[in-house]
Amino acid sequence: MQAQLFYEDVAVGQALGPLRLTPTRRQAVKWAGASGDYYEIHYDKDFAQAAGQPDVIVHGALKAAISARLLTDWMGLEGFLKKVSCRFQGIDFFDVELACSGRVTGKYRDGDVHCVECEMWIDNARGERTTVGRGVVVLPSRSAGASGG
Amino acid sequence: MGEKSYITDAIRNLIGRELDRSVCEIEKGMIRRLAEAALDDNPLYRDCEASRNSRYGGMIAPPGIAWPIIPAKMDWMATQYDFPLKRLLNAGFEKEFFAPIRPGDVLTGILVLADVEEKQGRIGHMVFFHFEVDWSNQHGSRVMKLRQSFIRY
Q1: Which helix (H) or strand (E) holds A67?
Q2: Torsion (CA) A8, A10, A11, A17 in degrees, nearest 10
Q3: Which stretch of DSSP H or E encloses residue A47?
Q4: Is the pTM of this model over 0.90?
Q5: Residue B49: inside a domain, yes or no?
Q6: Cβ-defined contact of A82 to B96 (cutoff 8 Å)
Q7: Which of A62, A83, A87 is closest, CB to CB, to B38?
């Protein structure tokens, strides 16, 4: 695990990632079981084709979990994920690599709470940006003393 | 425009109402399965020394914890609800966290249909269903809010 990130270490414009993952059909089934999302379009090819897709598609929530992980890996064990959003603007298929990247877009103090705003996006290996999101994380501050808030 | 509306009075009457409520205990296995499925090896999602020594003092749930505890009516309305537009897309969501969610917590989630709207897009006539779920824990503290949008087209 890398050293803990502090509010003072972060600059607007700083790049995050990329985090590269290739979701598989096996992962789709695991995600369906873990998340409770059993919509057939994610594992039943006949169903997906009847719904107008060429093949089964990756769960949006799984892509969201990847983009949230970009933030939670970065903020470290002392960070707190305050807000995360995702907008799905394209479909992804299994066995195609996804690259999740991000950027720091702002930082502010809300009383004693030190917040950093980020944007994230997922580009697939076909060159499509299918997922975009935003997040806010709370980081410890060096000026707040050893407890870090 | 003379465009047919798919939003009936029956649907409009649901807006702003509590549609469903779930009470769920957060279990360690639930957390482990979510982290494994997302290939997320963050030690905070495990009962281990690193999580015990963190600011959290122990294992917490990942942000995806909202999904397995969603009041069932939302999934039903998204995938099973008899609606003339049969195709479904997940448009996106926003989650806000107010406090860590831990194994053993008992969360109460309240589902509301926040709004319904119609748009024309590349894929044709679309009806957006905007849901909200607010969760509080056994101490009465608000822990998480989800705003989730589905498209029927």
Answers
A1: helix A60-75
A2: 170
A3: helix A45-50
A4: yes
A5: no
A6: yes
A7: A62
As for how many domains chain B has, the answer is 1
Ranges of H-type helices in chain B: 9-12, 28-37, 49-52, 72-79
Q: Which residue of A lies nearest to B58 if distances are taken between CA atoms?
A: A77
**Residue A30 in domain:** yes
- List the single residue in A with minimal CA-CA distance to B123: A52
State whether ipTM is beyond 0.85: yes
Encode pLDDT of A98-143 as tens digits.
999 999 999 999 999 999 999 999 999 999 999 999 999 999 999 8
> Does residue A96 lie in a domain region?
yes
Helix/strand/coil for B103: coil
Counting Cβ atoms within 10 Å, is residue B8 exposed (0-12), middle (13-18) or buried (19+)? exposed
A1 within a domain of the structure (yes/no):
no
Q: How many domains does chain A have?
A: 1
Is residue B35 within 8 Å of B62, Cβ to Cβ? yes
The answer to whether residues B47 and B59 touch, using CB atoms and an 8 Å cutoff, is yes
Which amino acid is residue A108, in one-letter code? Y
Query: Would you say residue B50 lies in a domain?
Result: no
- Which of B54, B67, B98, B123 would you mutate first to test chain A, the one with the most A CBs within 10 A? B67
Q: For residue A15, tell me if it sits in a domain.
A: yes
In a domain, B4, yes or no: no
What is the interface size between A and B, counted as CB pairs within 8 Å? 107
